[in-house]
Specification:
Elements (H helix, E strand, L loop, with lengths): L2 E8 L5 H14 L5 E8 L8 H5 L4 H11 L7 E3 L7 E4 L8 E2 L2 E4 L10 H9 L8 H8 L1 H10 L12 H6 L1 H12 L3 E3 L11 E3 L2 H8 L1
Parallel strand pairs: 1-2, 1-6
Antiparallel strand pairs: 3-4, 4-5, 7-8
Length: 215
């Protein structure tokens, strides 16, 4: 009997489009003789799509692979079942809809809300199996300042780094710039602490480019 995989993709991060490409790769690579894939897309503003609308985010040749699987979902507005005894999806407002059991959720959401422990916490609370790291590993890995501290305390070699809070920058940017230039030095690279991939990385050779990179 084939396993049913709930493929969650898209999302509210700056890596929305990359996530769609990742989901497309999963659908085109996974063995259709062993797995049925139910696509669950999340829009840029955080709206969860039903499987048919989710499939519409892919090219036609990818959607064709899902057509037979998705027929029962025509017009359905699905949510995750709030009962850990039943691990799957159900329809809102339709008593005659047969809930769909999901054997495992596969989140390919990138960046914020996808790799930071957020979606993992939702899966944990719902009591459903999922692919990937748990809440703690995901949240620590996403926060670069926390991850650097863990590496340092474990005795691993790391590059010189420093960090500051957004409110410090908003309250007194000149003080932050002075501290960075005096105690850390230039040139340097600036990266948001909580964004995925290479999003937001900028080089800074002087105070002007440093301020621009932080902004």
């Amino acid at each position: 009997m084939k396993k049913v995989v709930g493929l969650v993709f898209g999302g509210r991060s700056g890596e929305h489009d990359v996530s769609i490409r990742s989901a497309k790769a999963v659908i085109e690579t996974i063995d259709p003789n062993k797995y049925d894939v139910i696509p669950i897309g999340v829009t840029r503003d955080g709206h969860w799509l039903n499987p048919i609308d989710s499939a519409g985010l892919f090219p036609e040749e990818t959607t064709e692979r899902l057509r037979a699987i998705l027929q029962p979902f025509e017009g359905a507005n699905l949510v995750m079942v709030g009962d850990p005894r039943f691990k799957g999806l159900t329809e809102i407002g339709r008593a005659d809809f047969e809930s769909i059991k999901i054997d495992v959720f596969f989140p390919v959401l990138h960046g914020t809300f996808g790799e930071d422990g957020t979606i993992q916490g939702l899966f944990e609370m719902a009591g459903v199996p999922y692919v990937g790291c748990g809440v703690l590993a995901s949240s620590c890995g996403m926060d670069k300042a926390v991850m650097k501290s863990l590496f340092r305390d474990a005795g691993l070699p790391i590059c010189k780094y420093t960090w500051f809070l957004r409110r410090e920058w908003e309250n007194d940017r000149e003080r932050v710039l002075h501290r960075l230039s005096e105690n850390f030095g230039l040139p340097c690279f600036v990266k948001p602490a909580n964004l995925g991939s290479s999003v937001g990385i900028s080089p800074a050779d002087d105070l002007e480019s440093l301020a621009s990179a932080i902004d």
